[in-house]
Amino acid sequence: MEMSLRVLGDKHPHTLASMANLASTYRNQGRWKEAEELEVQVMETRKRALRDKHLDTLTSMANLASTYRNQGRWKEAEELEVQVMETSLRVLRDEHPHTLASMANLASTYRNQGQWKEAEELEVQVMETSLRVLGDEHPDTLTSIANLASTYRNQGRWKEAEELEVQLTWHRRTGIKGANLASTYRNQGRWKEAEELEVQVMETRKRVLGDGHPSTLTSMNNLAHTWKGEGYAQTAIALMRECVQLRKQVLGPQHPYTMSSLSTLNSWQLEKASISG
């Protein structure tokens, strides 16, 4: 990147591509501020040079939105994602992979803000288009089904969630089916069924993605909740404590997921202390 800046200048496409690649590396390492700084530069330069409708500009906007989303900065992410989706629909049309990705990203941001209806509306469109264009076994289609099931689950619509989740083929690499179906079982109080799936998912993610990957930490958080529901309070507290420590390191102490896990841990510890006392 530094050589490209020196030789080609900060507006050259190769320089911008190298900056975007470095930002992606920072993002994958959870170095959000460093990623953001580069992504803002890339986005603003591409907007000036290529205009808003260019695919490279839309990609840079989506990357910055992803960095905001990973920090729990939902409103900033939403603002960019709405622009990306609307432009993609207008320029690329609704069946283009970039358009579907932009709709899925915005739906995820809505879901994280508890805007279930807005999320559901987009997720239904993404799922139906993916089924039609990509087929029912494509990874993107399976992800879209899982996302819609998650939105149903968060609204307490357990049967609709379960119907979608049992359609999913087991995805060994990330445990998509197992994680979501386990969550549905957990919310129905079907603890043993949830635990069986969640242990598999957590172990698979640890092996494939690593102990500190955000998806691994989500599975730890979920398994801790299941153990608590089964009455294994001490074991649940120990796992949640580990999850909090790792989320602080990986996501940062102010991230909503870190704060949620910490709040749960404090609540469980107070409950245990009051029972012991």
From TrEMBL:
Keywords: Coiled coil. The keyword Coiled coil applies. Pfam families: TPR_10, TPR_12. It comes from the Eukaryota. Residues 33-95 form a coiled coil. SUPFAM superfamilies: TPR-like. InterPro entries: NLR-like, TPR-like_helical_dom_sf. Signal peptide: none annotated. PANTHER family: AAA+ ATPASE DOMAIN-CONTAINING PROTEIN-RELATED, ATP/GTP-BINDING PROTEIN-RELATED. This is TPR-like protein.
